[in-house]
Amino acid sequence: MTSKTLNDFTLSGGQKAVVWLLGLALVAVFVSSLTYRMSHPGNKVEFQQQSKGGGMPGGMGKGMSEDAMKHVRELMERLGKEPDNMEIQLELANSFMMIRAYGRAQTFFEKVVSAEPENVQALMGLGMCFYQAEQFEKAAEAFDKIVALSPDDSMALFNAAVVKKYYLHKHDEADAQLKLILDNPKSSPEMKKRAEEELNRDAHAE
């Protein structure tokens, strides 16, 4: 994962919203890391995607949106020449996520997962698409698959736990996954802090 500095935003209201936070890093090639935070009363679910294209989220200005769409068109052209290229498929999925075209993103994430069942990036993105579509069982399943592949992935554990806690009412499972984050020395201090906050928060308080 690339390093990132994020500021916290607090949203209120009865409807879930999406807050887009962008961090940039340079690792051999330019890589942009986009963290999606979806807020619902009483919860926070975080998603992290990586993209080599450097496109920007569609909700961050007309110029940025146009750049993102241009990047999508370029990727579609490349895909026409290399229809079996999973790297392009994944980049397209991430790009559609950036412009909040979740249905289109899901299509490409599913293609990547079908060809590469252990692709963690694709599974994470697919989980977010299911969340957006309010298919919470499938979202939790996608995050749990990541945990099965990478038990130390604290973000996947956190995502799975929050979906289970607030949407599936599987509180015991959620608490168990949050405790795994706290007990794992490889978990970052930030993720441990978030896990502890969730463990102490009543799912029905708000």
Task: Give keywords.
single chain; 206 residues; alpha+beta; three-stranded antiparallel beta sheet; 55% helix; elongated
Explained architecture:
This protein is α+β, with helices and mostly antiparallel strands and 206 residues long. Helix content is 55%, strand content 16%. It has eight helices and three strands. It has helices at residues 62-81, 86-98, 102-115, 120-132, 136-149, 154-168, 171-183, 189-199; strands at residues 17-27, 29-40, 43-51. It has a three-stranded antiparallel beta sheet. The longest helix is centred in the middle third of the chain and has 20 residues, at 62-81. It is elongated, with a radius of gyration of 17 Å.
Give the rounded overall mean pLDDT: 74
Poorly predicted tracts of residues: 1-42, 49-61
State Rg. 17 Å
Span between termini: 33 Å
Strand content is 15-25%
| Helix/strand order, N-terminal first | EEEHHHHHHHH
Number of E strands:
3
Q: What helical percentage do the residues reach?
A: 40-55%
Strand arrangement, major sheet: 1-2-3
Q: How would a textbook summarize the main sheet?
A: 3 strands, antiparallel
Tally the helices: what do you get? Answer: 8
The helix/strand class is: alpha+beta
Shape: elongated
Quick structural gist:
55% of the residues lie in helices and 16% in strands. It contains 8 helices and 3 strands. The longest helix is centred in the middle third of the chain and has 20 residues, at 62-81.
Fold topology:
Blueprint: E1 17-27, E2 29-40, E3 43-51, H1 62-81, H2 86-98, H3 102-115, H4 120-132, H5 136-149, H6 154-168, H7 171-183, H8 189-199
Antiparallel strand pairs: 1-2, 2-3
Helix pairs in contact: 1-2, 2-3, 2-4, 3-4, 4-5, 5-6, 6-7, 6-8, 7-8
